[in-house]
Design brief:
This protein is an alpha+beta fold. It is built from 3 helices and 11 strands. The chain has 2 domains: 129 residues, Galactose-binding domain-like (Jelly Rolls); 47 residues. Keywords: Membrane, Transmembrane, Transmembrane helix.
Length: 190
């Protein structure tokens, strides 16, 4: 879903019916710093989609949203699908989160509206860093499961290597170098 999106700076469209005025066009993926003057702020990305002809009646589609800065809320045809963190109009109102999101999309005939409301008061660059992905639900879900499995395998491997180095240090306490590897592994994971 890369390309030009409507962007409404300093407006959450789910709270307002206004669809005109300060609308600008932004490229996704990208950052909004040039529009808002900095990475801090909030706004709504809007995309209007026509139901594709190849989508069958019982076919379930989904949307996968990876990285946005730093809290987001996803709305499809006026219905809240979910959120990552808490969007807000100020730093105290918002709570950042970098959790990817995966939601089923029930297409309706004709036009469909996707809103992604984002607030960022915790990072120097704001906006949609990665484009959302849309596709068949089963494929997106399996891909997400495979990503999770590979991440868990990598984290487990690093943990086992750290345990090995702690074991080396336990038996050879004079060699402090064995503690540097687990320390750097912990820093890398967190």
């Amino acid at each position: 879903m890369e390309g030009d999106w409507e962007f409404y700076p300093r407006v959450f469209l789910s709270e307002s019916e206004e669809r005109t005025g300060a609308m600008q066009t932004l490229k996704v993926p990208g950052i909004w710093n040039s529009v808002l003057g900095s990475g801090e702020g909030y706004g709504t990305y809007r995309l209007v989609l026509q139901k594709p002809n190849f989508v069958e009646k019982d076919q379930v589609f989904g949307i996968k949203i990876l990285d946005v800065a730093t809290a987001s809320r996803v709305i499809w045809n006026g219905k809240l699908l979910g959120s990552s963190g808490t969007v807000g109009k100020s730093r105290p109102e918002s709570d950042p989160s970098y959790v990817f999101q995966l939601y089923p999309l029930p297409w309706r005939e004709g036009t469909n509206e996707l809103l992604i409301e984002i607030s960022n008061f915790h990072h120097s660059k704001g906006g949609m860093w990665e484009p959302p992905y849309m596709g068949e639900w089963n494929k997106l879900y399996k891909e997400s499961e495979a990503d999770l499995a590979s991440s868990l395998f990598l984290a487990g491997s690093v943990f086992i290597i750290a345990l090995y180095h702690f074991g080396l240090f336990y038996f050879r306490r004079t060699d402090k170098g064995n503690l540097t590897c687990p320390h750097f592994q912990y820093q890398w994971i967190s």
